[in-house]
Design a protein that fits this description.
By secondary structure, the protein is mainly beta. The chain contains no helices and 15 strands. The two termini are 27 Å apart.
């Protein structure tokens, strides 16, 4: 029962008050930076997805969609890509986390992609003299590939497969999502150095390794792609920089408020509105 717009069973809740609604998300962190001078490939940014039963990274299941509350502000943070390893600073840096946070939800955080020697969203490849790759984060990304000695480092892990899956030094592939209405692959791992050979980053923005000349390839921006490792010959042996991350929200058009910051790209697909955040910002439910 209501009177003058108020619910008499619970004062303050109007009969026409907007209701919470479900929103799907894809959250990808920044990719790691590639190592200098016989550098391993860097790991892709962590990958978390709730859309249409699509998997998350590292073989993880699709996650539960968010429940957003009208008038509540949700903060979108886009992780930057890691810096390249250069002369005098052999390792690059790991990528930064991406997230969605708000007062009434559990924060969705994807972990930045790994540089050599540390765990990340996806792991980095191993150096040729130490061999061991680093691990990815459960339900976000795969491990890197091991080094093999003789100036053969490992490829970085991707959201969809481990480094070295397609050969020594090759980056692991990312995952494809149709959350925007079209299938796009993101979060590929970077390629490692294999002496005298060009190696390829994983599908989804992973940076390549170029033999004999540098710097190696960077991860593609707003894919979370890991960077390629630097070569073992030539004057420039620098690695590449990691690709920045991205956050995508998909909400029912009937519930879309139109209130955002950070200039997301807004489009529609069927009965839904899609917001692609390539830079940090916010959405008010």
């Amino acid at each position: 029962m209501s009177f003058f717009g108020y619910n008499m069973l619970g004062f303050g809740a109007g009969v026409n008050a907007p209701r919470p609604y479900a929103a799907d998300f894809l959250v990808i962190a920044g990719g790691g930076g590639g190592g200098n001078d016989t550098g391993p490939g860097a790991g892709a940014g962590g990958y978390r997805n709730s859309f249409s039963s699509e998997t998350s990274g590292g073989g993880g299941s699709s996650e539960t969609s968010l429940t957003l509350t009208p008038t509540t502000s949700y903060t979108i943070t886009i992780g930057g890509g890691g810096t390249a390893g250069v002369s005098g600073a052999r390792n690059g840096t790991s990528g930064s986390n991406s997230s969605i946070s708000g007062s009434d939800i559990t924060t969705i955080t994807s972990i930045g992609g790994a540089r050599a020697g540390v765990v990340g969203g996806s792991g980095a490849g191993g150096y040729d003299n130490s061999g061991s790759a680093s691990a990815g984060t459960a339900n976000q990304g795969f491990a890197g590939g091991d080094g093999a000695g003789g100036a053969q480092t490992g490829g970085g892990g991707g959201a969809g497969e481990a480094g070295n899956t397609d050969g020594q030094g090759f980056g692991g592939d990312g995952l494809s999502s149709s959350i925007t209405g079209s299938a796009v692959t993101r979060a590929g791992g970077g390629a490692g150095c294999v002496s005298g050979s060009n190696t390829t980053g994983g599908d989804g923005g992973g940076g390549n390794h170029t033999a004999g000349s540098g710097p190696s390839g960077s991860g593609t921006v707003n894919t979370g792609g890991g960077a390629g490792g630097g070569t073992n010959t030539g004057a420039n042996r620098d690695g590449g920089a990691g690709g920045s991350g991205v956050v995508i929200l998909r909400v029912p058009t009937a519930s879309y408020s139109g209130t955002t910051s950070g200039s997301p790209t807004v489009s529609t697909s069927g009965s839904d509105t899609i917001l692609v955040f390539n830079a940090s910002g916010s959405y008010t439910g």
